[in-house]
Design goal:
globular, 16% strand, 246 residues, two-stranded antiparallel ribbon, seven-stranded mixed beta sheet
Length: 246
């Protein structure tokens, strides 16, 4: 079976929303060190390899919004699609205290091969889906670990990230903070977007309304939790878009 660097679902769905998952899987393609990065299975199941639980949320959210979904089919440790091509963290050799053996000796030629086989096909497909309508709204679904190595626990249930475009994020944060018992981070646990990342490339550069959702991964471990969060978030996103007038 031919390796496919991205996965899609519902590409014919009519809604203006487009749901993406940049770190959907922990797959290491067979052409990268024979399909391994030299890490223990337990490490490949951690947040360093992919956004745990995010893909299930993204797929169900797309269904609830009647929108297309696209996600990656390669680990962020193979090459990170949510970084610009000139970003020094594009191909990580050390992440959250863990050395990535399969990347230690990756040279410029290997970096270019992974860009051509994984990164660029994903972005080409994402660009095509985003351009299918003139009024596309992009929702990018990510997850974060509750606690990084040697750091204090993170209290947020979810975070909303933004930088240059606040049209949708500002009313969405306001709407989420109306939800009882929900701890919402604003540009937490990270700040805004990075130059050349997926939102910058496919939303901000084209003036498309957008939001990046960061869900704490211990809250979306099971398929049921993922479905529950997606079903909770879908109407909230719709309400926020109405409030924003986008």
């Amino acid at each position: 079976m031919t390796y496919q660097p991205f996965l899609t679902e519902g590409t014919g769905r009519p809604a203006r929303w487009l749901v993406t998952c940049d770190h959907a899987t922990n797959t290491v393609p067979p052409f990268v060190n024979g399909g391994t990065l030299g890490l223990a299975e337990a490490d490949m199941e951690r947040h360093i390899a992919y956004d745990v639980g995010a893909d299930g949320v993204a797929r169900e959210l797309a269904r609830q919004l009647d929108a297309p979904y696209i996600g990656t089919n390669f680990s962020r440790l193979v090459i990170d699609p949510n970084r610009g091509e000139d970003d020094p963290t594009l191909l990580m050799k050390l992440y959250d205290g863990t050395i990535i053996p399969g990347n230690r000796h990756a040279d410029e030629a290997e970096r270019e091969r992974r860009l051509n086989r994984c990164y660029r096909p994903y972005h080409t497909a994402l660009a095509r889906l985003a351009a299918r309508r003139d009024d596309t709204v992009i929702v990018s679904v990510h997850s974060f670990t509750r606690q990084l190595h040697g750091r204090p626990p993170r209290p947020w249930h979810l975070g909303i990230l933004y930088a240059a475009d606040e049209r949708l994020t500002r009313p969405l944060i306001g709407r989420l903070r109306e939800e009882p018992g929900l701890c919402v981070g604003e540009n937490e646990p990270y700040g805004g977007h990075l130059p050349g990342d997926a939102i910058a490339r496919h939303a901000i550069a084209h003036e498309r309304p957008n939001v990046l959702l960061e869900l704490r991964n211990d809250l979306i471990e099971t398929e049921e939790q993922q479905r529950e969060w997606a079903r909770r978030l879908a109407p909230i996103l719709q309400e926020a878009a109405e409030r924003a007038g986008v």
